[in-house]
Amino acid sequence: MSDAAPPLAELYELLDREGFAIGVDDHVRIGRLLAKDATWTMTTLRIAIAALVVKEARDRAKFDACWV
Questions:
Q1: How far, in Å, CA of 67 to CA of 63, rounded?
Q2: Lower CB density within 10 Å: C or N end of the chain?
């Protein structure tokens, strides 16, 4: 697995193709997350965004596949 994050628009598109419903509320939450004064690694960013987007544990692998 790559440790580099895809650009957000590309990530949203990949997630949509995998059946994740990314709505305006998700965009807002992710935007707020990214606006936080924090030192993000790609790993912690992936985990944080997954926590906002993934609703079912069984879907985590699909999210991680989109991150690559």
A1: 7
A2: N
Eight-class DSSP state of 58: G
3-state secondary structure at position 39: coil
Phi, psi of 43, deg, nearest 5: -65, -50
Q: Cβ distance 20 to 63 under 8 Å?
A: yes
Q: Considering the entire predicted model, what is its pTM? A: 0.81
Question: Residue 1: which pLDDT band, with cuts at 50, 70 and 90?
Answer: very low
- pLDDT tens digits, 45-58: 999 999 999 999 99
**What are the sequence ranges of the domains in the chain?**
8-67
Check: CB of residue 3 under 8 Å from CB of residue 42. Answer: yes
